[in-house]
Amino acid sequence: MGFSGLFKRFSSLYKPNARIQAYPSPYMPGRRALSSSKLFNNGDDSVLPVLIVGAGPVGLVLSILLTKLGVKCAVLEKSTSFSRHPQAHFINNRSMEIFRKLDGLAEEIQRSQPPVDLWRKFIYCTSLSGSILGSVDHMQPQDFEKVVSPVSVAHFSQYKVNALLLKQLENLSFKFCTPEGLKCLDHEAFEARQILIGHECVSINASDDIVSVTASFLKDGKHMERNIRCNMVVGTDGAGSTVRKLAGIDLRGEKDLQKLVSVHFLSRDLGNYLLSERPGMLFFIFNTEAIGVLVAHDLQQGEFVLQIPFYPPQQNLEDFSPKTCERIIFKLVGRELGDVNVIDIKPWVMHAEVAEKFLSSQNRIILAGDAAHRFPPAGGFGMNTGIQDSHNLAWKIASVVKGIAPPSILNTYETERRPIAIFNTNLSIQNFKAAMAVPGALGLDPTIANSVHQLINKGVGSILPSGVQSAILDGIFTLGRAQLSETLLNENNPLGALRLANLRRIFEEGKSLQLQFPAEDLGFRYPDGALIPDHDGAQGSPDEPTGCRRDYVPTADPGSRLPHMNVRILSNSSSEATISTLDLICGDRVEFLLIIAPMELSYHVAHAALKVAEEFKVSARVCVLWPAGSAEGIEVGSKASLKPWENYIDIMEVKKSSNASSWWDICQMSDEGAILVRPDEHVAWRVKSGVVGNPIREMRRAFSAALGLKSPNRDQEAGQ
User: Among candidates 20, 71, 47, 72, which has minimal Cα distance to 249?
Assistant: First the structure.
């Protein structure tokens, strides 16, 4: 079955009682290679190296990355079809950079997304055809100049991303299997490159050398089970993750920040109106009859999602019938529409939580994406953080499977990614509170409605009949929305004028809901993990997010993402291809990159790096970066200086202007320095101005740390 046939209305299977058993066994880590470890039975073809549970963007990206790295994997998805209900829709710079490595996925998204001018703004209004209270443009000139990144952010619905990812997997020879297509189940080896639709993970048994996963499915009207033997299970199965629950991993943070009903609908009429009158991505609508947030997923196609506050049990999902939702839409639009088609209505709860750990059962059960963290949608960090989890995890899994690194390297996944998840949670909360500042300025304090709701549910109001409870809640809402009447909310009314002035100040000072966070999107840094920490540099993201947009400042500090610069490949051919420094890192194998300047001492470091990489049986390549305008003599310089090694590349800086910063200035280093880059484009080690001491010993230290073979303590670092 092809991917296109799987995109139907969302449906799910029954949920039998889940269970897990874990049999602990002590693991004695070796210096390298996995021959002494039973964690990966690579010689047994009946054992799948990696089973991914959950076919959302995070799981699909991980399956593509692993497959490109030569790791056999398969995917379980409990739903019988893929949902078309738009969810996440903002793809930040870092995720788009990762998508560039997936066979042109970023370029396809950019071609397919709506034009930027149709979604760059958030609009605050009394209705979609009424007064505009404010408008915030979230794109700045530098966002299009591609100075700090080779690709721009995108606005593209999650289900469309999923469709493109599934197409890529189809091109990688993945097969889509439904229960109806299964034949023999008993003693059948589970093949890699499968996506099993309608298969729910119901148990995980982790023994000394294997992980046994039981998948439940419905075939010919009967509930059946299938056992899958694998070395590792990665749970990418969303906020309600079964894998997380089976592993007994708890979440920490704030629950139930807000309950909402999400209404997916189509209206070409509304899309055409907004295209001509007030194009934007998000519309915050406040009037005396209704309050809601409209997400314009695609104005040209007329595809929208309306988010409406939801207060159960006084309100039930049944209260939001398609006809009721149509009436709410009309109230928010300010007029009736002739072509509204309500596709789907679903409730959801906003949380801000991070799993207490990302690894379980001696690194054989791993969580990624929403299974490991669930954020408020403010800022779009959910899907993006999950995609970056997969990028961090893929090369480490591949290193273990291929015997390059011990299973202990997987510990660095949690060491690196969990603090990022916690930071992004705090940033999302901060941004969510900024979103609440706007209704607060209009006299609609959301905390009052929530407090009244809590009082009704858990206080004295809980003894009242349900009808009385609903009437009290409706009365509070009606009273609150009365603050939005035109007689009150206008410049001639002193209170209204004050509120409108406060609202303008919020917009002018950038204290409303923000879309972009360049400093956090590109500038997140791993202070510790599969790297040699640098205690002279910055210590990663600030402890407390500001909630405001801050510019990204490039740095080559260990743990940071390699800065972008346009460079030209130098060779004997007539081609003068220009690429990004990020393109120098290979996505098809576990390979490290050493960047140096064409200097004698740096060539010595390059020799040491290539020799140590051969010793560690890991691929490495040297990049010799020449300053702009110095093309002559390059072939002789690098070829002679790196002989007999051939795995190197000569490149030259491409500057937009003569006064533009050099590569080493961008990295805040001298040209006597060197940078070792990991397969995920993050810096594993760097020296700012030349290696002190024996370069062989230093490169052994760097590769050992990057591969999880050895974790140098800080006293050792300081003494070298």
Answer: 20
210 and 245 housed in the same domain: yes
Q: Confirm whether 90 is domain-assigned.
A: no
- At 413, list the tokens: 């996944």
- Close Cβ partners of 26 (under 8 Å, ≥ 6 residues apart): none
Q: Note whether 403 and 393 are within 8 A (CB).
A: no
pLDDT of residue 122: 96
Residue ending a domain, choose from 316, 333, 351: 351
What DSSP element (H or E) covers 22?
Answer: strand 19-22
CA quadruple 494, 496, 500, 505: dihedral sign: positive
pLDDT tens for residues 257-285?
Answer: 888 999 999 999 999 999 999 999 999 99
Give the Cα separation of 294 and 169 in Å (integer). Answer: 33
DSSP sequence for 307-376:
EEE--TTTS-GGGS-HHHHHHHHHHHHTS--S--EEEEEEEEEEEEEEES-SEETTTTEEE-GGGTEE--
In the predicted model, is pLDDT for residue 477 greater than 80? no
* DSSP string for 50-82: EEEE--SHHHHHHHHHHHHTT--EEEEE-SSS-
pLDDT, averaged across the chain: 86
On whether both 235 and 258 belong to a single domain, the answer is no
Give dist(CA 378, CA 295) in Å, integer.
Answer: 12
Q: How confident is the model over 537-541, as a mean pLDDT?
A: 49
| pLDDT confidence tier of residue 427, bands split at 50, 70 and 90 | very high
Please give the residue range of the domain that contains residue 7: 3-85+156-252+354-431
DSSP state of 553: -
User: What is the per-residue pLDDT for 22?
Assistant: 38
Residue 414: the pLDDT is: 98
359-375: per-residue pLDDT in tens? 999 999 999 999 999 99
Concatenating the DSSP letter of every residue in 564-621 gives: P-EEEEE-SSS---EEEGGGGS-SSS-EEEEEE-S-HHHHHHHHHHHHHHHHTT-EEE
Which strand (E) or helix (H) includes residue 686? Answer: strand 683-687
Q: Does residue 587 carry a pLDDT above 50?
A: yes
- Examine the pLDDT at 51 and tell me if it is beyond 60: yes
Q: Are residues 81 and 190 in the same domain?
A: yes
Helix boundaries (H) for 509-566: 518-523
Could you give the 3-state DSSP secondary structure of residue 379? Answer: coil
Task: List Cα–Cα distances, 152 to 155, 199, 383, in angstroms.
Answer: 10, 37, 17
pLDDT tens for each residue of 115-129: 999 999 999 999 999
* Residues 324 and 230: beta-carbon distance below 8 Å: no
Longest dimension (CA), the chain: 88
DSSP classification of residue 116: G
Lookup: tokens for 219 = 């075939």
Residues 6+ apart with CB under 8 A from 333: 127, 128, 129, 270
Helix (H) or strand (E) holding 214: strand 211-219
Across 74-88, 143-157, 327-341, 700-714, least confident range: 700-714
Q: pLDDT confidence of 464, banded at 50, 70, 90?
A: low
393 pLDDT tier (thresholds 50, 70, 90): very high
**Chain position carrying tokens 């294997």:** 210
CA 255/CA 238 separation, integer angstroms: 16
Query: Domain end: 508, 525, 548, which one?
Result: 508
